[in-house]
Specification:
The chain is of the alpha/beta class. The protein is built from nine helices and eight strands. Helix 3 crosses helix 9. About 40% of the residues are buried.
C-alpha cells in the first residue's frame, strides 16, 4: 500500500503535485482597498479615471491571493464608493464630508477584520507629464512593519515589471496608513498623467502583471514573517 502511494506521488508531474501541498497563504487575511469610487473618481485624464483602474487591479489582486489560500476582504467591489456598499443609507450634505466619512469607513473595515496586511491601491497624476513609475508608500507613524511590506512590494514591482527604479518611501499625508493598526502600504501603480503609462494602466494584461507583482510582494513579506 505504501509503495503504491509513493509510486503515484512520483509519477505525478510537478504542477499536479501542488494539489498535495498547503496553499502558501492559507490562514492569512488581507484587506484590499481600491482607492476612490463613486463621485470621487480620483485622478483622471480624458476618459481614463483612477477609480476604474484601482478597482480593476484590486480585483486581479483579490483573485490571485485567493488562489494562494488567503482570505481576502475588499473594501469595495463596484464602481461606487465604500459607503455605497457598506452604509448606503447614510447621506451627506457635501462631497467633501462624504469623502471624509468614506475614508473613516475603510479604516473601520480594517479594524473589524483585523487582517495580517492592508493594501490600498491608487494611480498617480501630476501636471508634468514626464514623470512615471509605480511607487509604494508607508507611514512611519503607522504599524512598524509597514516599511517592510512596502519595500517588499516595491522590490517585486521593480523586478517583475522592470519599468521603474523607484524606492518605497515614507509618506505623512495618508490617514489610512497611519491609523490602521496592521502592516499597511499604499501602491501608486503609475502616472495617469504620463501618456505611455496611462496606456499601460488601462491595459488588462498590464493590470494583471501589476497584480502579479503586488501579490508576489505581499507573499514574500508574509512568508518572511513566518520564517
Amino acid at each position: 500500500m505504501l509503495m503504491s502511494i509513493v509510486f503515484v506521488a512520483y509519477e505525478t508531474n510537478a504542477s499536479d503535485r501542488n494539489f498535495f501541498l498547503p496553499d502558501p497563504l492559507s490562514g492569512m487575511k488581507i484587506v484590499i482597498d481600491a482607492g476612490h469610487g463613486g463621485e470621487d473618481g480620483g485622478a483622471s485624464k480624458g476618459e481614463v479615471i483612477e477609480k476604474e483602474i484601482t478597482l480593476a487591479i484590486a480585483q486581479q489582486v483579490e483573485k490571485r491571493l485567493k488562489k494562494k489560500g488567503a482570505t481576502v476582504v475588499m473594501t469595495r467591489t463596484k464602481n461606487g464608493d465604500v459607503i455605497d456598499e457598506h452604509a448606503s443609507s447614510e447621506q451627506y450634505s457635501t462631497l467633501r464630508e462624504r469623502k471624509k466619512q468614506d475614508i473613516f469607513l475603510r479604516k473601520d473595515i480594517v479594524e473589524k477584520e483585523q487582517p495580517n496586511v492592508f493594501i490600498t491601491i491608487h494611480a498617480n497624476a501630476i501636471p508634468e507629464t514626464k514623470w512615471r513609475g509605480a511607487q509604494v508608500f508607508y507611514h512611519k507613524g503607522g504599524h512598524a512593519d509597514g516599511e517592510l511590506l512596502a519595500k517588499s512590494i516595491q522590490q517585486s514591482i521593480r523586478t517583475n515589471l522592470q519599468n521603474t527604479d523607484r524606492e518605497a518611501l515614507s509618506i505623512k499625508q495618508i490617514y489610512l496608513l497611519k491609523k490602521v493598526e496592521v502592516p499597511a502600504a499604499l501602491v501608486e501603480t503609475g502616472f495617469i498623467s504620463n501618456d505611455e503609462e496611462r496606456a499601460l494602466l488601462v491595459d488588462k494584461k498590464y493590470q494583471e502583471k501589476m497584480a502579479d507583482a503586488i501579490v508576489e510582494g505581499i507573499e514574500d513579506y508574509l512568508l518572511a514573517k513566518i520564517e
